[in-house]
Amino acid sequence: MKRDEDVAVVGAGLAGCLLACYLARRGRRVTMYERRADPRTGAAERGRSINLALSERGLDALRRIGLAEVALADALPMRGRMIHPVQGELDFQPYSSDQDRAINSISRGSLNQALLDAALAAGVEVHFEHTLVGLAPATGDLRFETPAGDRKATAAVVFGTDGAGSAVRGQLLGHGLLTEELDFLDYGYKELTIPARDGQFALDPGALHIWPRGTSMMIALPNPDRSFTCTLFWPTGGVSSFASLASPAAIEQHFATHYPDVPALAPDLVDDYRRNPVGLLGTVRCAPWQAHGRVCLLGDAAHAIVPFYGQGANCAFEDVVWLDHCLEETGDDWSHALPLFEQRRREHTEAIAEMALDNFVEMRDRVASPAYQLRKQVEHG
Ligand code: FAD
C-alpha cells in the first residue's frame, strides 16, 4: 500500500544515492531502482569517466551528513593545472595562492559505492537491474523491466536521478508535462591510461594535467593505483577527429606529432584508443523539473552539463542540499517544496552550464596563450 512517506528514487548513481541518504535521514521510506547490476557483483563500466574532480561544492553536501571523510579516503588533491605544451617546459599554474586549496581526484566507482553503502545503512531498499520504462506522473505508478520480467511499483513521490538520458524525463515529456532541449557538442571524449611507472606516478599527482591543442585537448587526473586516466576531447567527425585515425600507425603518428610526451608514458595507447568508446558531450535544458508536486528531476536528469568545469556531480550534490532546505522550510510538504526547489535552483544550474561551455575554450586554448600566461604572472606576482 502506498503511504504518504514512500519515495521512489530512479537511478542509483551519484545524485540518487546521496538523495536517498538525505531523504532517509528525514524519516522517509526510500526505495531506489537502478538499471545496472549491483556494482558489488560486477566490473566497472569502461570508458565512462573513471575518475572525477570533487570540489568544495560537492564536499559540503557530503560533509553535512558525515560522508566527506569516507569520500576523501583515497582522494588525490590537485592544487593546480600542469600545462603540457607541444614543445618546451611543463608549466604549473596553481588554482589559488592558498596552498591548502585543491580539487580532489576521486574514483567515480568508489564514491558511488561509498554512497550506496551509506544509503543501505540508512535503511534504503535498493533494486538493481530495474530499468524504468513507464511512469504515470499523476499517480506515481512505475513500471520496470527486470531480468524476471516486468515489475510494477508505486510511490507517493518519485525522483528521477537517472542521468542525462533520463527515462523519467522522457516519461514527463511523453505526458506533455515538460519541454526539453538537448544540445550536443560536435566534440566527444575517449579515455586513455597512463599506468604507474616502476610503481610510481609517471606524472606529478598533485596537478590536473592539460594538453591544450586548440581544436583538441587532453586532460589527465591521478588515480590511487598511481595511474592517470586521460580524457581526450576531439571532434566526433571531420578531417581532424576521432574518426580520422583509422590505423595503429595513424594513431601513433598523431600522438607523436601533437602529444609528443604521451607515447612514452602510455604503452597501451593504441589498444586503448581502438578499444575505448567515444562518449558524447552535451547540455540538457528542460522545464519544469517537477510535475504534480510529486515527480521531480534532479542532477544530470534535470540539467546535465559539459564536463569542462568538472562541476556536474558537484552540482548534483548541491541540488540535494537545496532540496533538503526546501523540505525543511515547507515542513516536508512536497507540493510546495518541489516547485520551490526548482524556482531557487534553476538560475544557478543555468549559470554553471554556460560557464562549463566557456571553460572548454579556456582549457583547450587560452591556458596556453601568451596573454593568459601574462595575466597569470600578474595575478600570482
Ligand atoms: P549519473 O551519474 O548518470 O547516474 C544515473 C544513474 O541512473 C546511473 O546509475 C544509471 O545506470 C541509472 N539509470 C539510467 N537510466 C535508468 C533507468 N531507465 N532506470 C533505472 N536507472 C537508470 N562532474 C564533476 O563534478 N567533476 C568532474 O570532474 C566530472 N568529470 C566528468 C567527465 C566526463 C568525461 C563526464 C562525461 C562527466 C563528468 N562529470 C564530472 C559529470 C558527472 O559525471 C555527472 O554530472 C554526474 O555523474 C551526475 O550524476 P547523476 O547521478 O545525476 O547521473
Keywords:
single chain, 381 residues, alpha/beta, FAD/NAD(P)-binding domain, 2 domains, six-stranded mixed beta sheet, 19 strands, 28% strand, binds flavin-adenine dinucleotide, Kynurenine_monooxygenase, transmembrane helix, FAD-bd, NADP, flavoprotein
Q: What's the CATH H-level homologous superfamily of the largest domain?
A: FAD/NAD(P)-binding domain
What is the CATH T-level topology of the largest domain? FAD/NAD(P)-binding domain
Ligands and ions found: flavin-adenine dinucleotide
Unreliable stretches covering 5 or more consecutive residues:
none
CATH class of the largest domain: Alpha Beta
Tally of strands: 19
Number of domains: 2
Number of helices: 12
Shape assignment: globular
Helix content: 25-40%
Commentary on this structure:
The protein has 381 residues and is of the alpha/beta class. The chain has 2 domains: 6-78 and 106-182 and 281-366, FAD/NAD(P)-binding domain; 185-280. 35% of the residues lie in helices and 28% in strands. It contains 12 helices and 19 strands. The protein has helices at residues 14-25, 56-63, 68-72, 108-121, 167-174, 248-258, 262-265, 269-275, 300-303, 312-329, 334-364, 370-379; strands at residues 6-10, 29-33, 51-54, 76-78, 80-83, 91-94, 103-107, 125-127, 131-136, 141-146, 149-154, 157-160, 179-194, 207-212, 217-222, 228-235, 279-287, 290-291, 295-297. Strands 6-5-14-15-16-13-17 form a 7-stranded mixed sheet. Strand 1, helix 1 and strand 2 form a beta-alpha-beta unit. Helix 1 (14-25) runs parallel beside helix 4 and helix 1 (14-25) runs parallel beside helix 10 (312-329). The longest helix is centred in the C-terminal third of the chain and has 31 residues, at 334-364. The N and C termini lie far apart (66 Å). The mean pLDDT is 92. The protein binds flavin-adenine dinucleotide (FAD). Pathway: Cofactor biosynthesis; NAD(+) biosynthesis; quinolinate from L-kynurenine: step 1/3. InterPro entries: FAD-bd (IPR002938), FAD/NAD-bd_sf (IPR036188), Kynurenine_monooxygenase (IPR027545). It is an enzyme of class 1 (oxidoreductase). Residues 6-352 form the FAD-binding domain. GO terms for molecular function: FAD binding; kynurenine 3-monooxygenase activity.
